[in-house]
Amino acid sequence: MNKELQNILEKVGELYNKYGIKSVTMDDVARELGISKKTLYQHVENKNELVEKVLDYIVNQNDCSFQKLADKNLNAVEEVLGISIHIIKTVQEHNPSTEYDLKKYYPELFKKLNEIRKEKMYTSVINNIIKGKNEGLYRNDLDEEIIAKMHTSRFLNLTNDQIINQEEILKPRFIYEMFIYHIRGMANKMGIEILEKTLQKIDIKENLQ
Length: 209
Known about the structure:
Elements: H1 3-19, H2 26-33, H3 37-40, H4 47-70, H5 76-92, H6 96-105, H7 107-134, H8 144-156, H9 166-169, H10 172-186, H11 189-201
Helix pairs in contact: 1-4, 4-5, 5-7, 5-10, 6-7, 7-8
């Protein structure tokens, strides 16, 4: 990807997150970026393609963030905490109307994004459980496939829940408690000790504001 296109996708992603997708026109994009529509159309044929490229770019950026986390060689418990903090920060910057517009006006892209999320989260949980078992931090009797399916389903279907409203779901404290609950359900005695020590080292309260 060339630098100009990368800059366009990054800026458009910010516009979508701020104003939603439907209300941001190609004219708005060109004006905000300080480029002509002709230049914009050299990179994409229409708004549909722009939305798709922006989503692909965001997915790729998330992959890079998780790769940076993996490169730190954290243990399984620290890894889950790191993921939870990343998700909390992402949610704090998230505009619900963007998701709404995507679901209503670009259903195929919304479906594609959900499939990507599901696959990546499921694989991440599976790998983390295997890692935790190998490190002696998780219970050996865990069925990683069942746990991965439960955690992924629970997380991705929160917005359809009849008990928890959208405002509660987007609260950092809610996401934090969900991941702590997840860790405690998997960890053995040593894993719990690592969890407690790690929580003392990181300033989790800073991420829950």
